[in-house]
User: Fold this.
Amino acid sequence: MEEVITSRFPEELVKKVDQAVSRGHFRSRSDALRAMVEEYLTEHPELFLGEGTRELLTNAPTMTDDELESLGLRLFKGLNVARLVAEGRR
Amino acid sequence: MRTLLYLDTNIILARYAPDEPQHEEAKNLLAKIEEGKPASVTSILTLIEVVSTTSRAYNRFKGEPESMKREEVAGAFLRRVINIKNLDFIPTGGEVSIDIEEQRVKLPALFAVALEIGSKTGVKTLDNIHLASAHIASRIYGQKIDYFITLDEDLLKHKEEIKNLIEVEIATPSEISEMTFDS
Assistant:
């Protein structure tokens, strides 16, 4: 499925795209812009990282320090937190 | 000059672990930090450790009827840590290229410093990342750290060696509990 997107470009950029098309690098403006967008997105995977983190934070409840302390009392019961962190570093 | 502390992950988690031996000291310290005296920094690694440590501890917790999901527990702690006032996170720094013969390895500046520190201290891998973060804060970002606050037994054991290497005092919350901080 394809979608048509309307977008504004500076004149200079359009000239360069047209030049690339006229020189035979691309079949059309659409083809050129599609290829450029695809290449940029491939070269910048960082644009899609962090979604999971954002989701984690969005879905996480906001808790007060007292509530977190009460949660920590149960969560870390019988555990030495410093050692638990240290174990994770091994 | 304003006193600057580096907070290890275990200090932040000890604040929320009432059974931890230095819980009260960690709690008081975090309260002082949020009031603005002293200032503090930590590594971005701390965020990962907060999530992974609470997530590992969750294994013992999930049986309770009112339990939250693992992600909710980890996320709740992460959200709070990110929002601690006057706690800055030290970035990894730009990319450094190391050329050896025909090979070129690109790595974040933080890892390059950790490589160097690791070869000289013999502490655990991720301890090196924390030490490298403190070193980067002082040397690259001009934030001279006065104390590296930790409960990590290994780091405390190597405190003299680390002090000589990165010029930062290693201390526990109880060791600095009576201290008056400059603002």
User: Anything to note?
Assistant: The mean pLDDT of chain B is 90. Residues 125-139 of chain B form the longest helix (15 residues). The beta strands of chain B are 4-7, 39-43, 87-90, 95-100, 103-108, 147-149, 169-171.
